[in-house]
Structures are given as C-alpha cells and as structure tokens.
C-alpha cells in the first residue's frame, strides 16, 4: 500500500518549487544559455513532489537520456532475464558431416552478437556435426521491418549511424586503429571480411593533434570489400582508434562467417544471399544472447545507440518488429503504469533523433517510478557512475559527488542532457533531470556539474 501511495503522490503536479541557485544561474549565464531553454527537476525519491522545477512541462529533445525510457520499458515488458535468439536451420540432407543444401542464419535482433560470440555460434555449429556445406549461406533478416530513414547527419560512416538489423554482428562496425611511425600512418581494421582491400592515403604531418577524427575521411564499399582512408593525421596524436559503420549488416555477417567457418575447419561451396528461411527447413539449434540486464548495462554505460535501437524494436508485438509497433507498446505500457506522457515522441528509442521529445517532469516521473520498482537495481547499475566509468568517467573527479551518482548523459548539436540518481551524503536518493536545448548547449556542462554537486550537499 505504501508503494502505491508514493506513486500516486508522485504523479500529482507539485504546487511550488524552489528557484535555481546563484551558482547554477551564473554558470548558465557564462555559457550564454537562457534559463528558458533549460528543463530541470530535483526530486527526493521519498517526497511526493520535486523541490526544484524549471520548465517542467516543456517538451525537450532528451538526446541519449531517452535510453532510460527504453531500458526501463524493456525491463518491464521483457524482464531482466530476457534473451534474444539466433536460429540456425538447414535444408537438403546432412550425412557424415556434409550438408548437401543451404545453411540459414535467422536473426531476431540480438543486440550483442559480437565477433567473439559469433565465433562461439559457429563453433557450436561445427560441434553439431556439420563440416562441409555444399550450398549457400542464407541470411534471414525479415524479423526487423524497417523503412529507410533520412540521413541523420553528415557522417554516415560514423558507428552511431549504423542501422539495426535482425542479424547484426559486432554492431555492424569495424574498429579502425591509426598508428603513426617515422614516415607514415599504419592502418589496422577489424573485424572485416578476410578479402578486404585497404587503401591507405592518410598523410602524416607535424601539426598539433586537434580534431583528428574530423580530418580522416573513410569510404567503405560493401560490394567490393574495399576500404579507403584519406586525410591528414598529426604525429602528435599518437595511436588512435575509431569505429566505422559498415552499412549493410548482411555483408559483414556473411564475410565473417566464411572467415570464421574456415578457421573452424569448415568449408562452403556456394555463395551468400539474403532470403527468408523456408518453413520446411530443419532447426539445428538456437543461440542465445546475454540477458537484458547485461545488455542495458552496455547500452547506458557507453551510450550504445544501435544496441538501444535493437532493444526498442524488440518491444514490438510479434511476428515482426517495427518502430510503430514498439512505440505503441511503450506508450500503452506507460498508460497502464499510470504514466501518461502526451508530449512523448519516439523515433528510435535511442535518442539519436531530431524528433524525439519528452518533458523533464515526465522523465523525472519515470525515474521516480523506477526507483520504487523491483527493477531499480538493474536500471541504476546500468548507469554511468560519476567520475568512475562510462560517459561520466572524466567528470567531477575529486568532488563529493564522485562515486555517489548514477547519471545518463546525452549530447547532440544544440542538445546537452543528463538524468539519473544522486545518492546524497544525507542518506537520501534524489532524481535529477537537467535538459538543455540551446545553440550554446555544449557549454552547459559546468551548470550541470554544479547542480549535481549542490544536490549532494
């Protein structure tokens, strides 16, 4: 009864709230950010109403803090122990380790099918008794039904722009490592199909490092497996690495299959293609992902967009997954949970969007409800710890709030946000939401950090 009373009181609109401190206002003024372009909530988790509210009902772009909604919805709709499967089928006949037929990999949206786990899948396939495949590799992507979306920004090859797929290996990205030596820059890239040709046209110079990533231009040709790199790189940068979006998820899945299957002592005579698994195909086995609780840890600690988008799509109603179904199911769940967010706009559930919106008050309500729910430990554990790990690792070191707050951050052009929990020295846990939507938003970090420290005092 006490739990429901707290929730009921929480959902009432508070009658008044305190203003911001001079320190926070001064930090906003120094950053040229008007208070009207901020949305701020401070809420003691055991109180019926927030103590500070600034523009609580305005719809803001939350950037990556939208991952909090996706994570908490998934914990409720799927459960923390939920796992995704990848099914392996074959047609034709299998005799003495030789498959005279096609092998099918049918994906259901595993967000964390890394190279290591993909190799384990193929190792399990090899142990199942298949060694030689006299047929094709067929990749079944039909579970995710996605329409093409407009290009998000001018960097389509950046890993955060990778599109989710029902069968997606290693987040459909490759790590590119740049190492300067005496006269040039060495390029290493993995994972990539074994027959990839790398054309390195990077010029080494003696400038200061600066914005090194913007100076490197990449082009990946999925059909010919060619990677080209151009630009200038300063020796002063030392070794750096970045993730590259490889575009078509099936290309990497097929290329790595051939590479890893050969390493397992297997052979395949045919080519690869994308098609549906026939109803007559026989199931070899299903390979399971890590549980959802572990998945959201990686999503929120490191703000992994493609994992968040995959989880969001998985909130759809079967037999397939699409954005409209996932969005409807999340909104219906919110209403059933007495969380009615009429301003809520969901595009992909990851916050990598110019369209997504939620009010600071409703984000705080979500976190309030989560705090009083059985899934609070899983959600809080997934959030970056101030000054210690994830996207908050370098912020607020050597302060009282270091190690005492779990905060999710978000950043887009014109957007800087944070939301989470502060475990104050007085023994109370406070919900904190600080949204900035302003052309000078990136200068708002000091104001956000100042507020976090004040909550802990």
From TrEMBL:
InterPro entries: Beta-lactam/transpept-like, Peptidase_S13
Keyword terms, alphabetized: Carboxypeptidase, Hydrolase, Protease, Signal
GO MF term set: serine-type carboxypeptidase activity
UniProt keyword Cell inner membrane, yes or no: no
One Pfam family of this chain: Peptidase_S13
One GO term (biological process): proteolysis
Transmembrane segments: none
Signal peptide: 1-17
Family to which this protein belongs: Belongs to the peptidase S13 family.
NCBIfam families the UniProt entry points to: PBP4 (TIGR00666)
Protein name as catalogued: D-alanyl-D-alanine carboxypeptidase
Organism: Sulfuriferula nivalis
Taxonomic classification: Bacteria, Pseudomonadati, Pseudomonadota, Betaproteobacteria, Nitrosomonadales
């Amino acid at each position: 009864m006490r739990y429901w009373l707290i929730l009921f009181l929480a959902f009432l609109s508070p009658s008044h709230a305190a203003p911001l401190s001079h320190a926070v206002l001064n930090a906003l003024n120094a950053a040229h950010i008007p208070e009207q372009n901020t949305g701020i909530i401070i809420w003691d988790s055991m109180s019926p109403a927030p103590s500070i509210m600034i523009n609580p009902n305005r719809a803001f772009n939350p950037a990556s803090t939208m991952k909090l909604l996706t994570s908490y919805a998934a914990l409720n709709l799927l459960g923390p122990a939920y796992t995704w499967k990848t099914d392996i089928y074959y047609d034709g006949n299998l005799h003495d380790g030789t498959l005279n037929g096609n092998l099918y990999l049918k994906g259901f949206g595993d967000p964390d099918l890394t190279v290591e786990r993909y190799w384990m899948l193929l190792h399990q396939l090899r142990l199942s008794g298949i060694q030689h495949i006299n047929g094709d590799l067929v990749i079944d992507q039909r579970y995710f039904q996605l329409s093409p979306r407009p290009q998000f920004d001018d960097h389509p090859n950046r890993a955060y722009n990778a599109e989710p797929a029902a069968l997606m290996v290693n987040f459909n990205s490759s790590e590119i490592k740049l190492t300067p030596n005496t006269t040039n820059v060495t390029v290493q890239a993995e994972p990539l199909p074994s027959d990839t040709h790398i054309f390195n046209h990077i010029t080494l110079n003696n400038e200061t490092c600066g914005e090194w990533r913007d100076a490197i231009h990449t082009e990946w040709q999925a059909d010919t497996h060619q990677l080209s790199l151009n630009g200038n790189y300063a020796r002063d940068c030392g070794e750096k690495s970045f993730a590259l979006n490889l575009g078509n998820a099936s290309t990497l899945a097929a290329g790595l299959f051939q590479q890893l299957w050969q390493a397992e002592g297997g052979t395949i005579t045919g080519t690869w293609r994308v098609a549906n698994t026939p109803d007559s195909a026989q199931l070899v086995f299903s390979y399971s992902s890590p549980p959802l609780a572990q998945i959201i840890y990686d999503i929120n600690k490191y703000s992994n967009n493609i994992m968040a988008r995959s989880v969001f799509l998985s909130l759809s109603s079967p037999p397939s997954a699409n954005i409209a179904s996932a969005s409807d199911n999340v909104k219906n769940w919110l209403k059933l949970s007495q969380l009615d967010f009429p301003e809520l706009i969901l595009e992909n559930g990851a916050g990598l969007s110019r369209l997504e919106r939620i009010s600071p008050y409703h984000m705080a309500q979500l976190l309030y409800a989560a705090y009083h729910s059985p899934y609070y430990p899983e959600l809080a554990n997934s959030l970056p710890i101030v000054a210690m790990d994830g996207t908050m690792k370098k912020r607020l070191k050597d302060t009282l709030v270091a190690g005492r707050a779990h905060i999710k951050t978000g950043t887009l052009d014109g957007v800087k946000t944070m939301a989470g929990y502060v475990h104050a020295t007085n023994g109370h846990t406070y919900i904190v939401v600080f949204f900035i939507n302003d052309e000078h938003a990136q200068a708002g970090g000091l104001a956000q950090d100042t507020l976090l420290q004040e909550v802990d005092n």
